[in-house]
Amino acid sequence: MIEGVHFRLDPGWATPAEVGHRALAGALSDLAAMGADAGEAYLLLGLPADFGEERALELVRGADELAAHLGAAIAGGDVVGAPVLMVSVTVLGWAERAEQLVGRDGAREGDLIGVTGRLGAAAAALAVLDGRAPRTPGSEAAIARARAPLPRLAEGRALAGAGAHAMIDLSDGLASDAAQIGRASGVELHIELAALPLDAGVDDVAAALEQPAWELAASGGEDYELCFCVPASGHAQEHVERALAALDLAPVTWVGEVRAGTPGVRLSDERGHAVRIEGYEHLR
Amino acid sequence: MIEGVHFRLDPGWATPAEVGHRALAGALSDLAAMGADAGEAYLLLGLPADFGEERALELVRGADELAAHLGAAIAGGDVVGAPVLMVSVTVLGWAERAEQLVGRDGAREGDLIGVTGRLGAAAAALAVLDGRAPRTPGSEAAIARARAPLPRLAEGRALAGAGAHAMIDLSDGLASDAAQIGRASGVELHIELAALPLDAGVDDVAAALEQPAWELAASGGEDYELCFCVPASGHAQEHVERALAALDLAPVTWVGEVRAGTPGVRLSDERGHAVRIEGYEHLR
Predict the structure, then answer these.
(1) pLDDT tens across A169-206, in order?
(2) Overall domain count for chain B
(3) Cross-chain CB nearest to A2 (options B76, B82, B284)
(4) Do B168 and B240 fall into the same domain?
């Protein structure tokens, strides 16, 4: 995560602790998407000359608290001088057997597509922090969630165990992340935008922006929910719902199905019309 | 390694392949200093918008060739946008037993201090590339070595096995790196500057700079040789020399001894006078 590219270091935008938290969250989210256990994390800080030791320690504490919360451990790292603040995190994940891990290339025609939790908070928060939408009680909830996202490690393991055979974390936005599963698997993921579960405050912000709420939900990066595919036959859908409910984890919403077609994603609005959504744009 | 801080990306200074090589070499050198085996490396690239895919692939090839040469493997990584080129490498090292690993805190009064290989090429190359010293056949040799340093992994393992009980790699320069052993061990490392083994071309460049060659050898970073301490009693000195010669590894030069005193390093010139040398300065 690089200042000016992935975040702005400004109390309204992100505190040093939140930068540490988010850098580690982004790395752990990739493990979640494979159904892996989180192991050791290694943290590299590039610090501008005027950054100061206190803020550097605050940043590390932000990462450390998230690691402790998720059963990961920061096992090493390094500090170098840098023109802008940058945080590079390497995490190792583990599985008892390699076959337990889920890739992006396992989606098959007929599969059902699910997502965990709720979407759009990150895009809504960005719009408010950018000054494109006003602060409201609803948008504050989205901002709070976006500032400290929680990678879905437990959900990823449960989904892998319950039969998900393709999975990705939503770091660039559902539209572009789901397309990665489609391309890797050689199938077309058909997603109904009206079915997307919206996070608190996303409706508010979308109204202020005069755009459909599903646009924020499908295009915003850094929600760190999981998108996955399960076979429609058998009882995978039921297994998934039961496994997540039994562990009191994030709920699942079924948002579409996998078909033959152009490898990638096909998004359709409430009237069934195809919609084109660009992937997540970083600050620049 | 960050452009403008640790290197300049300019054909005369460093090609993309050399940046990849050096970033991995610097990370592996830390493993060498512990006597560890090199395991998996994870490579993060921060690429400016105009960097281009071809140069990015060249950079990765530079790292990959070094990894193959040393029995390491690049097992993963990531690519992000960045304001300047940056390469962050995380390497994992392994040992059969934790007790085989050597730290910085094991130096004891009476120990002998050794260094592997020859010193000063990196500082000499920097002076030439900076335009402070002329290009000569000698300085070209120093530049060639500095552009593609080889971390001393085999030497580190052999030294650990032969009884070295404190070790560090010379990434910031002997003066400041040896001081780290001294501080960690609570002892004073007495080093005779006239005893330092000089790399080819260092004499030439030092003459042009009108400064003693040992100043380049003791202050220049990124030589990636090892500095280590062994007990003077027993036969550790002989074991070390024999172990490295048997494996046809870099020779060892004995450069001083460990005494009680102010924790850190004490450097003395050919007349026995104390000399103060500042640590390696990065480009800024």
Answers:
(1) 999 999 999 999 999 999 999 999 999 999 999 999 99
(2) 2
(3) B82
(4) yes
